Amino acid sequence: MQNHRALVTRPNSDNTTRYISAWAEKSIEILKSKNFQVLDLAKERVSRNNFESMIKRHSPGFIFLNGHGGADCVTGQNEEILVKMNENENVLHGSVTYALSCKSAKTLGQEVVKAGDTAYIGYQEDFFFFFFSAKMARPDTDETAGLFLTPANQVAHSLAKGHNVSESCLITKKYFYKNITKLLTSEASDNDREAISYLLWDMQNLIFHGDGQKKIKD
Amino acid sequence: MNTNTKKEIMELVIARLQTLHEGKELSIGGAGEFTRDELIEHVKKGDEIGKKVIDVQMNFLQLLKEGIFYAEPQSIGHTS
Question: Which end of chain A is more exposed for a tag (fewer CB within 10 A), N or C?
Answer without folding.
Answer: N
